[in-house]
Amino acid sequence: MKSIEDVLQRNNRVEMDKAWEVSYTRRLIIAGIIYLVAAAFMKSISLDAYLLSALVPTGGYLFSTLSLPIVKKYWIEKYGNK
User: Fold this and answer.
1) Is the Cβ–Cβ distance between 27 and 65 less than 8 Å?
2) Residue 12: which domain range?
3) 22-54: buried (b, 16+ CB within 10 Å) or exposed (e) per residue?
4) pLDDT digits (tens, 9 = 90+) for 14-50
């Protein structure tokens, strides 16, 4: 049987995992990785202005993650009570 302390520690870990999933730090790190990979790929295929072009997939990622809370709220309102 788990002690109360074990349950509290688990709850804290779960809360921190949830906070990390929606954090701007996580989003910015992923966006940075996307930018670097996209820029490297675009440079490898000799695309002009590869640094500028790499902003397109990065912006798409950021836009999609920033719009998800709005879509989630709409979805919950429409389907949440069924």
Assistant:
1) yes
2) 4-79
3) eeeeeeeeebeebbeebbeebeeeeeeebeeeb
4) 999 999 998 999 999 999 999 999 999 999 999 999 9
Distance between CA 56 and CA 42 in Å, rounded?
12
Q: How many domains does the chain have?
A: 1
The dihedral sign for the CA sequence 16, 21, 24, 26? positive
State pTM to two decimals. 0.78
Gyration radius (Cα) of the chain, Å: 19
State the pLDDT at residue 72. 86
- In whole angstroms, give the CA distance from residue 70 to residue 29: 22
Q: How far apart are CA 15 and CA 66, in angstroms?
A: 20
